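[recover] target loaded
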């Protein structure tokens, strides 16, 4: 099991025993989060409500780790579960790229846990996995998520029109990215600032 540590946060795969904390945070933050997420398929159980659906989700994430196609982590500050960060859709070959997504408990927003988690994940992606590029795509009006990448001064690559279907609508996304070359130049400063 991969456990990644920052200055204040620990990233580790979610496990069945994390269900009570996951469920509580997700249910309490339903309105805060669902407007930025893909809609669940009709009849699909919600992992925040169903222990079996949550365990199946943990198993799917474990399979992604085994295949090297994705790495999902719970974000913990101290012992408290404060959100998630995921490195997904990893493609090797000539692309050597992955996509980063994150969310945080509204009660923990503004404490700097997400930017720190992104830096921890970048270090893992570039230094351990040897990826070349990471992309973070955010709906333009999602100001809290955009603030995370702006704090880290990630490169804005512009708007992707109707890029992802979110909560039942095709939404434009601002694409932010960082490459291994940029990490080599900026990583030491990001490490000092956040880790």
């Amino acid at each position: 099991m991969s456990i990644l540590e920052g200055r204040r946060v620990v990233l580790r795969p979610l496990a069945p025993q994390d269900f009570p904390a996951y469920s509580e945070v997700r249910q309490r933050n339903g309105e805060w989060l669902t407007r930025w997420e893909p809609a669940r398929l009709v009849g699909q159980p919600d992992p925040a409500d169903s222990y079996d659906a949550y365990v199946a989700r943990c198993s799917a994430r474990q399979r992604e780790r085994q295949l090297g196609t994705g790495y999902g982590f719970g974000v913990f500050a101290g012992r408290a579960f404060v959100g998630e960060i995921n490195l997904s859709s990893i493609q090797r070959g000539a692309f050597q790229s992955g996509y980063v997504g994150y969310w945080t408990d509204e009660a923990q927003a503004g404490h700097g846990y997400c930017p720190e988690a992104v830096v921890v994940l970048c270090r893992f992606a570039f230094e351990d996995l040897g990826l070349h590029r990471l992309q973070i795509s955010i709906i333009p009006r999602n100001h809290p998520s955009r603030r995370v990448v702006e704090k880290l001064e990630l490169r804005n690559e512009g708007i992707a029109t109707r890029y992802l279907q979110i909560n039942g609508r095709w939404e434009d996304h601002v694409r932010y990215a960082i490459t291994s070359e940029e990490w080599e130049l900026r990583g030491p400063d990001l490490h000092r600032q956040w880790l």
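[recover] notes: The chain has six helices and eight strands.
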